[in-house]
Amino acid sequence: MITHSNLQLISARWIIPVEPRATVLEHHSIAIANGRIEAILPTIDAKKRYANAAETVLATHVLIPGLVNLHTHAAMTLMRGLADDKPLMIWLNDHVWPAELKNLSAEYVYDGTELATAEMIRSGTTCFADMYFYHDVAARAALKSGMRAAVSGAILEFATPYAADTEAYLARATATREEFLDEPRLKLMLAPHAPYSVGDQTIQRIITIASEMDVQIMMHIHETDFEVNDGTKQHGMRPIERLHRLGLLGPNLIAVHCVHTNQTEIELFASTGVHVAHCPVSNLKLGSGIAPIKAMLDAGINVGVGTDGCASNNRLDMLAETRLASLLQKGISGNAAAVPAHVALEMATLNGARALGWDNEIGSLVPNKSADMVAVDLSDIECQPCYDPASHLFHAAAREQVTHSWVAGELVMDNRVLTKINIAEIKSKIEIWQQRFSSKTT
User: Fold this and answer.
1) Which residues contact 311 (CB under 8 A, 6 or more apart)?
2) Are strands 8-15 and 25-33 parallel, antiparallel or unpaired?
3) What is the rounded CA–CA span in Å between residue 365 and residue 205?
4) What is the pLDDT of residues 51-79, one digit of tens each?
């Protein structure tokens, strides 16, 4: 018998550890000590080996790694549904950016990010990668919620209330990294917004700074046909080729969207080790198209899943997002075996962790990794019968069936109740923001 003063035992009907692939463990338990996974073993053995552990019994649940939302703009949850049914550039230029200019502040980012973290935790997400403004404030909101986060401040060539020029954007990025350097639940990234909003010199400076600081770079790339065509006219080459010539493509780049990529560009991503953040709902809702994800996976590209922000998605629901990612690839390829459930789960967990350089810490349930995991209850009538819990995660269950969530062994949601966030307080603040946005936008 093994005893630890802080030992936990989580016993579940099923565990899907992600590593090794396509593994489903029945009637197993996870032993957690000091926030890390100590062992995964049959429950009957676990009860003997850890007889004095505090046990949580989830007899009808499947335990999976916490979902990793590889791309979002958390604070924009305050814009949920503000400018629906608009093409990307009209949505940006005529609605989102004007609204941001009027409302953007540290208070707005904190309140919006706090709202987003509440929704993400209740949807099974334990880690998110964020690109926005005032990312130091977003980091504090993430820490309060108990989540893990990789945050970045968008870098642009034009002024915003957040920064007057490129130098100011870069200065804020480096200062925020120094502030949170020793915080284990946070990573800092650099985030040039897109090829059409950041010039060559700025991109080259970002490459140098990222190398010096050893951080990831996140950038929207090839989201729309217009972006690709306009970039080709301006620079005499497609944006991905331009970025390659500038030296941006590499294993520290997370390329977001990549809807309009050809086979040559897919092979270039594969050979340079670029990671892709796939956001299918946003791509469809803005009319941007469908990314060739199956071709990317077949080429060996590491593809994770992101929701994008609520202004272009309306939900921060990784289960639904990943389901759509799988179904779209089946439909456009004519191959029902494309992106099966276990691959989809990898995309939503381990692949996102790998893109963030966190795969030694999170993304799968194996001994010595951090105990970042969620429990999904499959006992509801909508999930009966259950022949394959992995399939049920995406094709039968919904985010409302996520009941428990742990980050580094700490329970941040207990039977659908958030342990660190006050929902009533958030709702009262959101009412004020809704009034502000309603009175200041057209």
Assistant:
1) 73, 76, 79, 80, 82, 83, 91, 96
2) antiparallel
3) 38
4) 999 999 999 999 999 999 999 999 999 99
Residue 31 has pLDDT above 90, yes or no: yes
Whether the full predicted model's pTM is greater than 0.85, yes or no, is yes
Count of beta carbons in the 10 Å neighbourhood of residue 93: 11
CA neighbours closer than 13 Å in the CB half-sphere of residue 164: 0
Nearest to 342 by CA among 334, 350, 333, 330: 350
> What is the number of residues in the chain?
442
Instruction: Specify the pLDDT at position 91.
Output: 83
* Three-state secondary-structure class, residue 419: coil
Per-residue model confidence as pLDDT tens digits over 89-109: 888 888 888 888 888 999 999
3-state secondary structure at position 227: helix
The two tokens of residue 125 are: 């997400």
Task: Count CB atoms within 10 A of the CB of residue 219.
Answer: 28
Are 145 and 118 contacting, i.e. CB atoms less than 8 angstroms apart? yes
74 HSE (CA, 13 A, CB side): 36
For tokens 């009319």, name the residue: 287
CB environment 244-262: b (16+ within 10 A), e (fewer): beeebbeebbbbbbbbbbe
Q: How much is the pLDDT for 290?
A: 98
Q: Which of 280, 282, 289 is nearest to 312 (CA)?
A: 282
Rounded-to-integer distance, Cα 98 and Cα 176, Å: 26
pLDDT at 344 over 80: yes
Q: Do residues 223 and 194 make contact, with C-beta atoms less than 8 angstroms apart?
A: yes
pLDDT at 123: 98
